[in-house]
Amino acid sequence: MLRHKMRNILFLASCLLCISLCAQRPNSPQVNAHGGCIIAHDGQWLWYGEARPERGFTSLGVNLYTAPIDSLPADEANPLLHPWQLRGLVLSVVDDEGSPIQRGCIIERPKVLWNAATKQFVMIFHLELKGRGYEAAMTGFATSTTPEGPFTFHHAQRPNADIWPADFSEADIRKAQALNEADYKKSWTPEWRVAVADGLLLKRDLARGQMSRDMTVFVDDDGTAWHIYSSEENLTLQAAELTPDYLGYTGRYYRIAAGGQNEAPCIFKRNGTYWLICSGCTGWEPNEARMFSAPAIAGPWTQHPSPMRGPHASRTFGGQGTWIWNVPSAAGDQPLAPHLFFMADIWFPRSLAHSRHLCLPIRFTAEGTPIIRQDKNNGQ
Ligand code: GAL
What we know:
five-stranded mixed β-sheet; 21 strands
């Protein structure tokens, strides 16, 4: 009798689990390209993003989807509704024992830049080594001469070992050098937070190189390329200048919002102002976006209220930013006015492959401050 009851309970529980999994299963078409970016090349949109498995948290590599640029919908409602075509894995994890991208590693937030000088597409991504959770906190680099790849893995590193931030004075360095984790019995106290902002973790990681997790890239009008990433245990963002071939660091880097705990950086420049939209640190769970502006990458950075408005704005409409997509307006003649879209991932950790996408137009107040609302049909 008892066994029969147990069997019924188990049956009921598994039915409920199935229903809840199916209920969250999104509609097709499904784009398995997460934490990604969309760039224009040769009449095509190239959408690169994390290729995730149905189950589990490791990586398959990086997928590419393409769409003809002239297939842009007639309004700016949702450019994600292009007819995206899967071109397959352009970077794959490998089975070679000891390779940094060995199957079982985690590849996140891949971004691709075209380097006109070397005539290469350069892919830069957050890499975690197999079996080490999120401890490695490295940046991976891969290259290809064609957008469809396959990309060749180049190397992985932590940025800027043995180098202090470009704007650290002698006094700042002395202060940071005096900080030791062992002197703080507890983390997250007010004193610990001050020490983090002063460089406690920056100094800890000086010899090994700075941690680099959630990330984006940005090429400025003068051609300088920047890698912007969550560093110092995700407590401080850093912006590090890339070498002209985009395959390493020049050694010039700045900290942004030290101790502010920002992730998922997305950046754009408008009328000479740099705007940075980030998330807080709650893993796959959505949280309220943060926004900063500066007259230069070097700062000073000023924090603003979240740009999100309307229902569910306080949870970034369920998403976490990944890229600012610059889309020419379909309406009107040449020159096409650029439209900026905030792209975000709606993470579905039970099946990361099925995570969804948001694409929201960025509008501006009369003073030029970005505003983002969720209109209907902005999902994919
Ligand atoms: C998020 C991050 C994702 C992924 C995830 C892992 O905060 O933005 O890219 O790293 O955590 O829990």
